[in-house]
Amino acid sequence: MFRREHGTKRYHHPVVGELTLAYEALTPTDDPDQTLGLHTAEPGSPSEQALRLLASWTSEPARSTLDG
After folding, report:
1. 26 contacts 9 by C-beta, under 8 angstroms
2. Are 7 and 26 in contact (CB under 8 A)?
3. What values do phi and psi take at 28, rounded to 5?
4. Tens of pLDDT along the chain (68 residues)?
5. Which of 6, 13, 16, 31 has its CA 20 to 30 A from that of 58?
6. Is the dihedral of CA 32, 38, 42, 46 positive or negative?
7. DSSP 19-59
8. Do 55 and 48 contact (CB within 8 A), yes or no?
């Protein structure tokens, strides 16, 4: 069975629309039953902007140690 280890995938998010992300699958040589999948957006692309928008909705503001 052929398994791609890198490429590009397109997704449709219901709020931010189309996302085009590069992906890479990394398999440790000492544990071939596990795979780490990475997805990245091209810097400056509409997909990066959309992901930043989504991330901003879930981020909590940083707290200062002076806040008590």
Report:
1. no
2. no
3. -65, 135
4. 335 689 999 999 999 999 999 999 988 888 888 888 999 999 999 999 999 999 988 767 666 666 55
5. 6
6. positive
7. EEEEEEEE--TT-TT--EEEEE--TTSHHHHHHHHHHHHHP
8. no
